[in-house]
Specification:
The complex is a heterodimer of chains A (285) and B (429). Chain A is mainly α and 285 residues long. Chain A has helices at 2-32, 39-56, 61-84, 92-114, 138-160, 162-172, 174-179, 186-209, 216-231, 236-256, 262-276; strands spanning 128-131, 134-137. Chain A is 74% helix and 3% strand. In chain A, strand 1 (128-131) and strand 2 form a beta hairpin. In chain B, helix 6 crosses helix 7 (184-204). Chain B folds into two domains: 2-75 and 151-420, ABC transporter involved in vitamin B12 uptake, BtuC; 76-150. The two termini of chain B are 13 Å apart. Classes of the chains: A mainly alpha (285), B mainly alpha (429).
Chain lengths: 285, 429
Amino acid sequence: MVEVLQQIINGIAIGGVYVLIALGLTTVFGILGIAHFAHGSVSMFGGYLTFFFVTSWGFPLLLAILIALLVGLMLGVLIELLAYRPVRDANHINAFIVALGLTMMVEGINLELFGHEQVVIPTDFSRVFNFGGVTIPELRLYVILAAALLIAAMTVFVERTKTGQAIRAVAENRDAAILMGVNVKTIPLVVFAISTALGVCAGVMVGSLFAIAPGIGEGLVVKGFAVLILGGLGSIPGAVVGGLVLGITEALAAGFISSAYKDVIAFVVMISVLLFRPQGLMGKA
Amino acid sequence: MRTYILFGLVALLFIGTGFVQSWNTSLTILNMGLISAIMALGVNIQWGYAGLFNIGVMGFVALGGLATVLVSMPPTGEAWSAGGVRIIAALAMGAATVIAAVMTYARTSGRRRAIAVLAVITIGFVLYRTLFDPARDAIEAVDPASTGYLGGLGLPVLLAWPVGGLLAAGAAWIVGKTALGLRSDYLAIATLGIAEIIIAVLKNEDWLSRGVKNVNGIPRPVPYEIDLQNSASFVERTAGWGASPETASAITVKLSYLGLFAVVLIALIWLSQRALNSPWGRMMRAIRDNEVAAEAMGKDVTARHLQVFIIGSAVCGIAGAMMTTLDGLLTPGTYQPLRFTFLIWVMVIVGGSGNNLGAVLGGFLIWWLWIQVEPLGAGLMGIITYPMADGSFLKGHLMESVQHMRLLTMGVILLLVLRFSPRGLLPEK
């Protein structure tokens, strides 16, 4: 039993990362209908950047994350302006190809700037807490807390603020939103900025919990899409539930079924959901 | 007219490569170009005819590769006697579990359904593992350095090509049944998921495909270079060409492959063109252009989508089997789902989606660029950095960046084509 609990705790930590990735993807998808494949690689860029600041320039971790976050915000704006805005009114396939191309480009930039070595963001959280046999490394606890905080902030932003209302309005009915005086030109910018910033946070978490290496971002974004299907496309609660379900399933499967297939569980779960509940766990039929 | 000119230009590229570098290089690129063209044709059948996103092309290609191993490698007798029967029993057990679960799902309802299905799956899984694990270990223990897997059927390797198509078609049927009829984005993500699953299975199931230990020495449909060099009549005949026996034999082997691939490609183009211009093809385009109207005309949209999805994937599977045959080895670790899928999509988009010849043209052109960007880029950087001092940081950096220029070039080509000829080089009529 203790072992099951232990795996669940591990699953929540990695699930938190999935939720952050999926939140970024789901807002972009829900509002702009773009399958933003480059998201994983951009997130890894954020992780690399943090690593670079901490190791090469000796910045304290929090400051490094903060700078990476700001860069992430700006990067999101740039991606929208330069990559997706020109193809907004074109055929659906163009945005899709741009997304794939952007992925390759960002992966290339990561390779060029940071090399192909696997890097781990150094942290000095080495304590391990023990609750009745279940151990939680300090770092994992902070990751869970930070993810929870970000998810809460995101929810408050989307539900309570004026901009959040505008985002939801555009997602629901773009034309009506235009008629109501929502500036549909700036909304995508805001969405991409936030989405990328969330991605950067996820990148930092992956980089400190596990490691960043070329290809990790691609794997992550594919899982992010699996989470979207799991939870229901375009739904924020869906992304949260889907990410946690996936994280916990993965950890349990790795612990009790087969660790070789850990990364495939996501797709098996996704295909079962498509078969039996295609609108997703939290989606409306 | 435009078709002839563009194909002529691409032919010139290959001929130029032959003169400037070597005919051997040119033929190597051309052989892979033929395979790429077939993959692009498969994607074009799905996207161009029916508007279906498939971003799991590599999964179907990998299945084709698996087919090559399963058909052509000699069976490992020892491994079969060690655990062959048991492993087949275990797989049958697994299949029975799935069928039992589906039947339980259909017969029950409400909360009892969830519990019953879960119970069936759990029991089935435990039984499967008790049968499977010892059998797998027994097979993988048989001479792990050279075999450690069941091997294939020892049949002629050419037979693997249609089998690869069949395997891919089977996988496509499963994906299609799951995700077609839902939103189009679901299909894209489901195909990517299935590709990841297929590649993970190939990487991890050593008893089936030797996993990351690779299968090498797959039999060839054409003679080996060394046999040609040792054959007196061959040396005699080629002596008149003015080439050394080594070069002559390498080129003969490549030309034989070229002939085989060209036959497949031409047959597939002919079939695709016939299909596209038949009533069936017109129906497919009608569905693509307006699903609602086609449905109102009494066309079964989902069934037609499934059909075309299976056909396109089968073509990719055939290409995958051909690729593994050409390489002579199966390396499950090298199938990168996103990267190569991107390349094939670029071929289709640049060539002109919806036009079979366009996709084929894109296949040749993009593959040629993909290989030649590095030498071309190195030459270009050599000229740019010529005035700079040797050993300067910028020069070193620029020269080093050549190896990352492939993807960049693909992006630039894509942008240029989309900007000046948005529907591809050979647009659909």
